Predict the structure.
Amino acid sequence: MLDLKSVNFDRVLRRYDIQMETKESPEELAARMVPKDPYLRKVVEDVVFMRSKNITEDVGSALKNYSPEEVIEHGLIKGMDVVGELYGRGIYYLPHVMVAAEVMDKGVKLCEFQMKGARETRGKVVMHVAEGDPHDIGKNIAAVLLKSNGYTVVDMGRDVSIQDVITTVENEKPAILTGTALMTTTMSAFPKISERLRERGINIPFICAGGAVNRAYVESYPMGVFAAKAIQGPALANKTMEGYDWRRLRENWDKLTAAKE
Amino acid sequence: MLDLKSVNFDRVLRRYDIQMETKESPEELAARMVPKDPYLRKVVEDVVFMRSKNITEDVGSALKNYSPEEVIEHGLIKGMDVVGELYGRGIYYLPHVMVAAEVMDKGVKLCEFQMKGARETRGKVVMHVAEGDPHDIGKNIAAVLLKSNGYTVVDMGRDVSIQDVITTVENEKPAILTGTALMTTTMSAFPKISERLRERGINIPFICAGGAVNRAYVESYPMGVFAAKAIQGPALANKTMEGYDWRRLRENWDKLTAAKE
Amino acid sequence: MAIKRYTRMEYGSPDEMVFGEARYPVSYGLGQTVGAGVVVPEINFAPRPGAEKNPESLRREYVDYITKDILDRAITLGFPAVQLENEHIFQMVNEPQRYEKPVVAGQKEMMQNYHDEYGIALSIRHTVADPRLAEEGLRVGMDKKHSYPEKCVESIEVAAENGADLLSIESTGGKEVADYAILRQDIRGWLFGIGYLGSIDMAWIWPQIVDIAKKNKVRAGGDTNCAGANTSMFMAGGYLDRDIPRTFAAVTRAIASAKTLVAWECGATGPDKDCGYEGPIVKAIAGKPTAQEGKNCQCAHADLMGNLIAQVCDLWSNESVEYHPEFGGSSVQCWLGSIGYEAALMNMAKQLKQDRLLRDLYMATDRYRSPEAFILAYDNAYKVGQAIVEYGNDIYLRSKAAGMTAARLIEEENKSGKLRLSKHEQDMLRKIITDLSALPEEEGRFQEMCLKAYKDVPLFNPKNYEL
Amino acid sequence: MAIKRYTRMEYGSPDEMVFGEARYPVSYGLGQTVGAGVVVPEINFAPRPGAEKNPESLRREYVDYITKDILDRAITLGFPAVQLENEHIFQMVNEPQRYEKPVVAGQKEMMQNYHDEYGIALSIRHTVADPRLAEEGLRVGMDKKHSYPEKCVESIEVAAENGADLLSIESTGGKEVADYAILRQDIRGWLFGIGYLGSIDMAWIWPQIVDIAKKNKVRAGGDTNCAGANTSMFMAGGYLDRDIPRTFAAVTRAIASAKTLVAWECGATGPDKDCGYEGPIVKAIAGKPTAQEGKNCQCAHADLMGNLIAQVCDLWSNESVEYHPEFGGSSVQCWLGSIGYEAALMNMAKQLKQDRLLRDLYMATDRYRSPEAFILAYDNAYKVGQAIVEYGNDIYLRSKAAGMTAARLIEEENKSGKLRLSKHEQDMLRKIITDLSALPEEEGRFQEMCLKAYKDVPLFNPKNYEL
Ligand code: B12
Ligand code: B12
Ligand code: SF4
Ligand code: SF4
Ligand SMILES: [Zn+2]
Ligand SMILES: [Zn+2]
Ligand SMILES: [Zn+2]
C-alpha cells in the first residue's frame, strides 16, 4: 500500500462536520428554555436528557403540585419542544428525538392515569405507506413525532392498498390522512386516493411525503400537502387543528415549514 | 510517458465503427437502383457521385430525349433517393447529402429553364429557429433537404420573434411551418406560436425539431408534429401534400419516420 | 442444499485484492466474464412514473426505450462489455406472468441482437423484489393475505426461465428489528435483526435461488444489506446531516457483511449486488467478484466513499437512475457514459500493471472521509473479514466480531491517526463498544436475551425465523 | 490594448504538463486559486424550462434552488473548493438590468454566506451569451434592429459589476462561414471562418472584456470554440454516427485552438472555458489554467475522450445539466458529486506524487478511441502548439499549421501505429491534406482567395471583420 504519511488531506477533503461542531451544549440550551419551577424543570430535563429511569418519580412529584394537564403541557411537551430545538440546530440527532419521545410518552401515561376522563387528543391522523412500497422508516419516524405531539395515530403500516386507505378513512374519520412513497412507481396511488376521497365528499389535508414525491407532484392533486421531513408533521397538523384547510396549508407552506428543515 | 506497447487495447475499447464498415460500396448500391436508360442513368450518377462538373452536360443530353419534368423526376430526384438510401445505411455521410443536393439543384435549374411555366413547387414551407436561439445548423440541413425534394422554402433564419413568425405565415400562406429549438429556455415559443395561429384560424402542420424538444413536448400543443432528424422532413412534408393534417401525421408518426432514423 | 460456512480467508493478504480480478471469476450471459482481468460497467435504471400502467407500457419502457438506449450508447462509445441490472418493481413480483415475463424476455432478445451484430459482451442481472411483510409471515404458507413468500420465489423462477443471466435479491429478513433498533441507536438490537435474524432468513431463501439458477443454467449472484446497512448509511448522510452518527453506520456495515456472505455460503457464485458497500469485506473472505458503486452512482446516493469503494470492484455501477431526457441523451445513457469510462480507466491501469496503484489512489482519497469509508478501505475490510472467518460457523459470534473489529479500528485510528470524529460520533462509538462487550459469549444465550428484549417490537414474530 | 502573440511555448516539454498545475495560476473569488496544486470541480447548470417566465422566477431558480443545492452538497461531501459556472440565457443578455443583475448578485450573496460560515473556497464564472447575428452585423452600430453587439458588452459589464469572479464568452465570430463549410467538408472554408475571421472577431471583443474585468477587479477567463469545433465534434459523434467523419472534426479542433488562444493574447488570464476541448493545446502554449470536461459531463455531451481530456485540466467540469430531481438529490447535486470526487482523486494523486502517472492512465485510455482524442493527447497537443507558435504572429499561417500538423499526426499513426480509421475517415484525411497543401503561403492572398470564394455564403458580410 502507498505510504500516506506525506499527504496533506486538506487539499483533498474538508471535514466541515467537525469544523462546525456546535459550541453550545444541550445543557446550556436547555438551561435557557426550561421553566424556573423546580418540579416542572425536572420533568423537562428528564425528557431532554432522556432519563427514562427518573421520569416516573419526577412526574409523580410534579403531580403533587400541578394538575395532570399542566404537567403535560408545561413539563412533558415543553421538554419535547426543547428536543425539537436541539434537533433543529444539529445538536441532537434523530435517535435522541425518538428516545425522548418515548420518555415523554411514559410520563403522559402517568398523567392520564390521574386525569378525570381520557386525555384529550389533539386530533386523529391515519398514516400509511403506498401500495407496493416497503419503505416505512420515514413514516415510522413521523408517527412517533405526531404521537409525542399529542395526536392519536392510526398506523396502517406499509404496502397498503388504496381501498384499505379509503375504508379506514371512512371508518376512523381522521382530521388528517398521510401517505409515504419512496418509489416513483408507487406514488401514483396518491392522486387516486385523492380522487376517491373526493368522490365520497371527504375533504381533509392529505399529507404526502417520501423520497419519491416533491412539492410540485403533491400539489398537483386536490388535498395533497407536501412534507419534506418528519419534523414538519406536527407543525402541519397543528395548523390543521387551528382550522387551516389544505389550500391554506399549501399557501402558507414555506412559512410553516421554514424553521423545520 | 508510460510505455503503451504492452497494452491490449481490446480490453479497454472496441472500434465498432471499423468492425461494421459496410461491405457494399456506393457504386454497388447505386448500380442496383439507377434506371437502365443511359441518359437518365448519367444524371442519376452525377447526383449520387456529386459530379458537379458533369451535370450541366448530362442534363443537357437527357433533355434532348426527355421532357424537363421527366429529367427532374426520373433523373435528379431519383438520384437524391439513392443518396438518401446511402445515408440511411451509413455508407454516405451528411456532407455527401448536402453536396449531392447542390448538384441536383443545379440540374433542376437547367430543366426549369426549358419548362413552359415555372416548375411547380411541391409546396411552400416557412422555417425558423426560435427567438433567442442561435442554433441553426440543424434547420439549415433540413432546409437543404426540403429544397432538394422540391419544396419552396422561406427561411426566416434564427432568433426569430413570435410576431415575425405569425406575420410571415399570414403573408406567405405556407403548407407547413417549421420551428427549431436547441434550448429548453427558447422552446416555450412553440406553444405560443401554436396558440396565435389558432386564434387566427390557421391550421397547418407545425413541424418542431431541435435537441431541446422531444415528441411528447411537441405533441402537447395543437399542430405540433415532431421531427428527430432533418431527413424526416421530406417524408412528413410529402404526406402533408397528400392531404394528411397534423393529427394524422402524429398518428402515423412511427411509420412515417421509421426508415429515416 | 448444505451451507458451507467460510472459516478461512481466500486471500492471503489485503494487497492481493484489486479491482477487476477475483479468485473465482464467473462467466455467464452473452460472452461475459467477470473478475478475470477487466472491470465491467453495470447500468441500472428505473422506469418513468406511469410506465407501470399496464404490462405493455412497462415492457416498452424497459425494452424499447431503456435497453435500446443503453445498447446504442455502449456501441457509440466503444465499450467492450456492459451488464444491465433490472431491479424489479412490485407489479412484476405481484403478477410475474403478466408484468415480469415480457420485460425479461424482451430485454434478452434485444441484447442477443446487439451481441450478434457487434460482438459486444452483454449480460443482465435481474434483482427481484422482496415484498414479504414480517407481520404477515416470511415463510411459505404464512402470508395468507398476499402469499408474498410464494410470489417472491415464483418471480425468481420467471426471471431465470426467460432470460436473466444473474439473479439477485435484496432480502429483507430481520429488518423489522433493525428498523426499530436504528432509531434508538441500539447496536444489540441491530445485531440481532441483521446479523442473526437476517442471516437465518437468507439461509432459507438463498438455497432456493441457487437451485433455480442451476436448473436454468444461469448464475445466482448475491444479496446486499440495503434494508439495513444502507439505511444506516443514508440516514447518517454527509456533513450536513444529523440523523444518526456515522460511527453507528460504520459498525452496522461491518455486521451486515456477515449476513451478505450467507448468499455465497449457500452456493451463489457472485458477482454480488452493487448496493452492498460491504462488498470489499465479503470479497476478501470469499474471493468471489463484487459489484460496487460510488462516485458514478450519485444519481442515486451521495455516499462518503465515492472513489474508495472502487478499489476492489469487478463491476462498476451507477446504482439506479430514473429514465428521462438530458442534454447528452437519456439519463441511462449519460450515467452509462460515466461508469463505462471509469471502467475503461481501471482496465487501462490493469493493462499497464498500475492497477494496484490506482486502487490505492481510490482508497486514499476517501480513507478519512468517514468512519464507514475507513473500515471499508481494503486493508481494514480484510481485518473485518478475518474476524468473521475466525467465528465462521457461528452467525451470532461472527457478526459480533465483525462489529467489534470495526469499532476498535475506528477507535484506534481516531486516537492516534487521521480519522477525525465529532464528539457525538465518539460518544456513540464508546457506547457501541460497551454494548457489544456486554453481550454473551454464546449464541443460545444471545437468542434468549434478544427474544425477550425485543418481543414487543412491532411486526417482529419469531416464527418467521423458526424460533 | 495591445495583443501579445505567443511565439514560444511556455512549457519546455509535454511531460511538464499535468492536471492541477499551470505555469500561471490565477486567484479570484472567495479564496479560490486555480492551477496551483489542486484541481477544482466546476459545476454548470441550466434552469428548468419555464423558469425564464419572469425575472423573479429566474432568480429563484438560479439562486434559491440551484446555487443552494450546489453549496449544500459541496459541504455535505466535504469538497474544499467549488467553482460554479452560469451560462447566461438570452433573456439575460437582452435585458441585463431586469434579468441578469438579480441572478448574479443573488448567487454571489449566497456564496459569500457559505464561504463565511464554512470557509469553503468558492467562485463563479459567468459566461455571457453572444447573441450577435452575422447578418445584422457583429460590431457596435451595425445591428440596427437588436443592438446585439452593444447588449453583449453591456451584459458583460453587468456581470462584472454584480458578482462575477470570472468572465467568459463563447464568441461566435466566423461561424456563419464555418457552418457553411462543415456541411460541405470544406476545410479551407472552415479555416477561413474560424481560424481567420473568428480570430479577428476575438481580437475585437476580448480587449473589451479584459478592460471590464480589470475595472471591476475580476478575472477574464477565456473563450471556447463551441460554435465551430464542438459542432464538428458533436456531428462526428460516436461509432454509430455518420454525419461527418471524425478526421475532419479532429483537424477543426486543432485549427480552433489557434482562435481560442486569442483571448489569452488579449490579456485574459484563464482559466479558459470547459467546453474548449482544445484546452490542452492552448495550455501547452500559454501555461494558463484550463477547464476541461469529459467522462463526468455525459449529462451534456458523449465525447470520445472521457478520461483523456482530464490529463492536464485545472478545473473539472460537468459542462451543463438541466435542474431536475433525481433519486440522489437534484441533478446539479448528482453531477457535482461526480466531478468533485474525480477532482479529489486527482488531488490525492498530486499529494502522493503520482499525478503524472494518473495523467498517463487517463490519456492512454482514450488515445486511440478517435482521431480527435489522439491529437489532444498531451504529447500531440504539444506538437500542435509548437506549430502554432512557430507562426505565432500570423493568424492565418498558424491556423493552417495547426490543422496540417494534426492531419499529419493522424496520418502517420494510422499508417504505422494503433489509430484505426474507417475508409471514409481516411479519404477525408487525404482530402484535407491536399486542400491545406494547396493554400497560399501568405495571409493577403488567402484573404483575397476566400473573400472571393465565399462571397455568396449566406449571412457572410466582410464588414463584420473590417475587411
Ligand atoms: C432502505 C431502502 C430500502 C429498504 C427499505 C427498508 C425500510 N424499512 O424502509 C428495502 C431493502 C426493503 C428496499 C427495497 C427496495 N427498494 Co429501496 N431504498 C432504500 C433506501 C436505500 C433508503 C430509504 C430510506 O429509508 N430513507 C430514509 C428515510 C428516513 O427517508 P424517508 O422515508 O423519505 O422519510 C423522510 C421524509 O420523506 C419524511 N416522511 C416520510 N414519511 C412521512 C410522513 C409524514 C406524515 C411526514 C410529515 C413526513 C414523512 O420524513 C423522513 C425524514 O425526516 C433508498 C435510497 C434513497 N436514496 O432514498 C432506496 C430506494 C427508495 N429503493 C429503491 C428500490 C428500487 C427498491 C426495490 C424496488 C429494489 C428491488 N428491486 O428489490 C425494493 C422494493 C421491493 C418492492 N417491494 O417493491 C429505489 C426506488 C426507485 C424508484 N423507482 O423510485 C430507491 C430510491 C433507491 C435507488 N436509488 O434506486 N429499499
Ligand atoms: C454548436 C452549439 C452552439 C453554437 C451554435 C452554432 C450554430 N450555428 O448553430 C453556439 C456557440 C452559437 C452556441 C451558443 C450557445 N449555446 Co449551444 N450548443 C451547441 C451544441 C454544441 C451543438 C448543437 C448542434 O449544432 N447540433 C447539431 C445539429 C445538427 O443538431 P440539431 O440542430 O438538433 O438538428 C438536428 C435535428 O434536431 C433535426 N432538425 C433541426 N431542425 C429541424 C427542422 C426540421 C424541419 C426538421 C425536419 C428537422 C430538424 O435535424 C438535425 C439532425 O438531422 C449543443 C450541444 C448539444 N449537445 O446539442 C449546445 C447547446 C444546444 N447549447 C447550449 C447553450 C447553453 C448555449 C449558450 C446559451 C451558451 C452561452 N451562455 O453562451 C449559447 C447561446 C447564446 C444565446 N444566444 O442565447 C445548451 C442548451 C441548454 C439548454 N438550456 O437547453 C446545449 C444543449 C449545450 C449543453 N449541453 O448545455 N451553441
Ligand atoms: S442500495 Fe439502492 S439499489 Fe441497492 S438495494 Fe438499496 S435501494 Fe436498491
Ligand atoms: S460545448 Fe457545451 S457548454 Fe460549451 S459552449 Fe458549447 S454548448 Fe456551451
Ligand atoms: Zn443498486
Ligand atoms: Zn437527470
Ligand atoms: Zn461548458
